Every structure is written in C-alpha cells, then in structure tokens.
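Fold this sequence, please.
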Amino acid sequence: MTSLKVLVALQRLADARNRFIAIDIGAHGNQSDGGIFRHSSLYQLLSSNNFNMPYARTLSLSDLELTFVILGDEAYPLFSYLMRPYPRRQLTESRRLFNYRLSRGKRVVESAFGIPAGKRRSYPFTRRVKSHLPSAGIIR
C-alpha cells in the first residue's frame, strides 16, 4: 500500500474577540498564502463587495473615523480592505514600528486558532479523505 501525504490549507478570519467569521478549507498546502487567498470564496466576496464588513466607526472621544481591515502577512496582496507589512528590506524606523504593531494584531487570529504566532503546524490525518475537498462557506 502506498502512503500519500496531502497538505490541505486552512485560512481563517477572526475578529478582535477571537471569533471566527470566515474559514476557507481545501486549497493545496503547497501554494502561497496569497495564492490561496486569491482563489478563495472569501476573496470573491470581498472583491465584489458582498462580504458583510462592518462600516467605519468613529473612535470615542475623537473625530477620527477608522475602517475595518483584514491583517495579512507579506504573501498577501495589498488592497483597501487588507493591510500587510512593509517588505523587510530597507525598513525605516517608522515602517519597522508599523510592522511590529501589525504583527501584534495578527496574533489575535493565531490565538483564536490556538497556534503560537510565527509557527506553522501540520496535523496528520489518521483517516482516508476524498481527494476533492470543497471550500467552506462563511460562518455566520
């Protein structure tokens, strides 16, 4: 019997309260995060303005209005709704500080999923799975 190891990518989106608001399962694990995102149902919803993103809100005791954004790593594309860090080469001090603060925000998703920040883990399956895995829908 031949053993076949298949990597399945899981992308998740969590809010500031550690609640998952979207999960996409089924892309091949050997693709980049940005490539997986571009082929996900979440990307399709965001690109067509059909994802139920909260409206911008004004900070209390301020006139400053902030929009809600998704935080990604360097592999993700830059969009008006998606923030990513500056490339690591030739960082100024202000860009380094921005990257640090962005990475602290991304830890929310990591803690929601129970994965220490900066670590990828593989979870071996002990059961046979079908070769075609459909993408998950949006969790409401």
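The two ends are 42 Å apart (CA to CA). The longest strand covers residues 20-28.
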